Amino acid sequence: MHKNNSNKRTSVYRLTIVGMLSAVSIVLGLTGYGFIPFFTAKLTIMHIPVIIGAILEGPKVGLLLGFIFGVTSLIQNMIYVNLLSFAFLNPLVSIFPRVFVGLMAYYIYKLMRTKSESLNIAVATTAATVTNTFGVLTMIYIIYAKDVVAAKGISSGTAAGFIYGIALTNGIPEAIVAVLICVPVIMALKKMR
Fold this sequence. Notes:
Radius of gyration: 18 Å
Structural class: mainly alpha
CATH architecture: Orthogonal Bundle
Number of strands: 2
CATH class: Mainly Alpha
Strand order of the largest sheet: 1-2
Shape: globular
Strand content: under 5%
Number of domains: 1
Number of helices: 8
Mean pLDDT: 89
């Protein structure tokens, strides 16, 4: 009987975490607060709920939250148009790379064997953020390099430099913000268990 109650509590806890993080993702995505205008593209904090969910609840939750992140990104680019919005209307750009964010966070976290839990979370968070940034930018480069060049008015030889330049200007601040948020939140939620 005790084991059954423990399983019920675990299921309720998991459902609560997934529901809460899904709601946060949807609100951040649909209001535009999850995408902060920054130079030529937008900084995202939308990957943060994905990372938290994946590390706390596993790869399936990470996949689900990554999918929600991608769908809200697609919708958000329909509502708030910027220079690269045309690329995000393609699910291969807006959704496909985002489903890997949670997987990367979970598996890197599981592979980390240091005694510092905060370091393990920080490394997994950074890897997941890089997965998001490079995954999206690589899809943009593969599918839309010519369109980006035309939209930006730059020469075709500078497409890769321009697109991957966004990785530096956006990716580094995104990783820093993600680590600063994910480490204390995940540590606190783990203690609550």
